[in-house]
Amino acid sequence: MSTETFVFTSLFLNDHILVMLSQLLIVAVIILIVAKLATSSLQLVPGGVQNVMEAFLEGIISIASDVAGEEVARKYLPLAATIAIFIFVSNMIGVIPGFEAPTSNINITLTLAVMVFLYYNFEGIRKNGVFKYFKHFMGPKLILAPLMFPIEVISHFSRIISLSFRLFGNVRGDDLFLAVVLFLAPWVLPILPFFILVFFGALQAFIFMILTYVYIAGAVHISEEH
Q1: What are the extents of the domains in the chain?
Q2: Could you tell me which residues are beta bridge partners of residue 7?
């Protein structure tokens, strides 16, 4: 039994890279349409898509405030919300037969992870300065620096692997699970598995977003750590 998923755009695109780019384009178009609907006629008393998006953003701020503090939650909301929306929409189109989740491709998840890695380190250096930022890699005592510094460096780089492979592995596993379900019951709509996939797709977007906040907070709040 093959677990290869059928993608509509593969009917006229032979190269898998082009197929994946077509799925990314679909995700981008969906996000732009939602953003346009949410902001086209802003009202003091929101309704429709504006209401949903405002509730979504307020939810992120509320949850992130508990993790990283309200100041960080609000300042980095554009980055965190964009990542969450992109991952969620990418995961959701993978649930629809005939489409492939861009997040099931390691190149996409690795790019997201590297972007977060570079950004939180940049913010840490910008906020604290180069010397102070890398000094906290050496631990509380200077004598521990030869041991702590390489451990901290490895720990930070491992976040790239952790972020990218966690998202890739879970979404890829969901795609294979859906392919198996559709193979076993092609004429019966497997409603329960679809609900499960939607839940886990949203969960993966939430985890990636929260970890982004955690890493940023850890980078910019060095003085509080000590």
Answers
A1: 8-37+48-225
A2: 98
Residue stretches of the chain with pLDDT short of 50:
1-3, 225-226
What span, in angstroms and rounded, lies between the C-alpha atoms of 122 and 2?
44
Residues 27 and 144: their CA atoms lie apart, in Å, by 47
Residue type, 218: G
Query: Under a CB-based contact definition with an 8 Å cutoff, are residues 220 and 127 in contact?
Result: yes
Distance from C-alpha of 196 to C-alpha of 168, rounded to nearest angstrom: 17
Read off the pLDDT of residues 39-57 as tens digits, 9 standing for 90 and up. Answer: 887 777 667 788 889 999 9
